[in-house]
Amino acid sequence: MEVEQVLHMKGGEGEYSYYKNSLFQKYVILKTRPVLGEAVSQLCRKILTEDCFKMADMGCSSGPNTLLPLWEIIETIHSTCRTLNQKAPALQFFLNDLTGNDFNTIFRSLLPCFYEKLGEDHKFDKFGPCFIAAVPGSFHGRLFPDNSLHFVHSSYALQYLSQVPPGLVSECGMPLNKGNICLAKTSPASVHKSFLEQFEEDFTSFLRSRSVEVISGGRMVLTFMGSSDHNPACVHGSGIWTAIGSCLKEMVDEGKLEESKLDLFNIPAYHASAKDVRQLIQREGSFNIARLEEIDIIWDANIEDGNQDLVFDKCARGKYVSTFMRAVAESMLASQFGSGIMDDLFNRLSLKCTSYLEEGMAISHTLVISMVKK
Question: Which SUPFAM superfamilies match (predicted)?
Answer without folding.
Answer: S-adenosyl-L-methionine-dependent methyltransferases
